[in-house]
Amino acid sequence: MILLFSDSTYITNDTTLTDVSSIANIVIAATSFGLAYYVFVYQKNKDKRDKATQQQKEQDDKLEATKLQEQNIRLQWFKELVIQPHLPDINNFYNQLHTLENQITTVTLSDQQKIDLTNFVKSELSNLRKSFVDVLLGVNPTLYNEIKDNLDALIDSITTTIIDDGLNLTHKPTYEREIGSKISYSRNDLISKVYNYKGTF
Amino acid sequence: MSNIKTINLQDYRTPRSRVFTGRDRGINVRNASKIDQLEAESDKVIIKIPEDIGSINPSFLEEFLYNVVNKLQPEAFFTKFEFENNGRYKIDNDLQEAVERILREETALVH
């Protein structure tokens, strides 16, 4: 269809402006309807999605709250059954190791004295393992390994210092540098690891 | 005559050191000495400890003996393995401690 405009408001080919206007109105109405329908469907889907998201979030929150509650219960049990009853063992272990300073009385230790001293520290570790460290294995293997590594590293270091290094351990600063400070670091590290345990597996 | 194999720890010691310590070192010596293989091929294994050794710590022994203790279990392990120990240092307590650790961990892993 060819539309030719003239000065008058008529268009050739028997089509008037009124007809064009009517068609335009129909097109606009149809477009509006389509748009309204689209908005309606879009909104409906969006509401559906939002509702699903909200439900999922509520479910996640609930799950998270349950997990947190379980974690708190585990943490409480951990504190009451594992830590508190064994705090004296942990303190005793480190206090015993600190007695090394008084046990080292001569500048040059004999081979037998060295062996006796290292047997003493290894025996203390064995006692702590049986009373405390082994309990951790059933609670959290990662924590168990971290604590075991800490304690083994300390005992290995003391053993090497006493047997291999030939240092004058009656000299207080030397003793403190080679043994005393390492005992303190180990204790701090152990406390930190236990303190930072969150009750998770 | 029974088939006897020997591991001389002198061959695996760190120069100038009189101690065997650490899990990493235990793994290294376990691999280097082929202890697992020697155990499988023999009726008895003798582990010779150098006379001037001052300590073989449980941290080392735990890894060094991990597979053979788990395979044999304590009774057969102590029957099959002999520690030749002529110096001042006596390995008995450290060995017992290492075996207990190995079994404790294995039991926990299984359950």
What does this structure look like?
The complex is a heterodimer of chains A (201) and B (111). Chain A has 201 residues and is mainly alpha-helical. Chain A is built from five helices and no strands. Chain A starts with 16 loop residues before the first helix and ends in a 6-residue tail after the last helix. Chain B is of the alpha/beta class. In chain B, helix 1 runs parallel beside helix 3. Chain B is globular and about 40 Å long. Chains A and B meet through helix 3 and helix 4 of A and helix 5 of B.
Distance between the termini of chain A: 78 Å
Write down how many β-strands of chain B occur, each being a DSSP E stretch of 2 or more residues: 5
Q: For the largest beta sheet of chain B, what order do the strands appear in spatially?
A: 1-3-5
Low-confidence stretches of chain B: none
This entry's quaternary arrangement is: heterodimer
Q: Strand content of the residues of chain B, in percent?
A: 15-25%
Number of strands of chain A: 0
- Average pLDDT of chain B: 94
- Structural class by SSE content of chain B: alpha/beta
Distance between the termini of chain B: 41 Å
Tell me about the largest β-sheet of chain B. 3 strands, parallel
- Low-pLDDT stretches of chain A are 1-8
Number of helices of chain A: 5
Question: Which tags fit this structure?
Answer:
heterodimer; A: 201 residues; mainly alpha; 5 helices; 81% helix; rod-shaped; disordered N terminus; B: 111 residues; alpha/beta; 3-stranded parallel β-sheet; 18% strand
Write a concise synopsis of the structure shown.
The complex is a heterodimer of chains A (201) and B (111). Chain A has five helices and no strands.
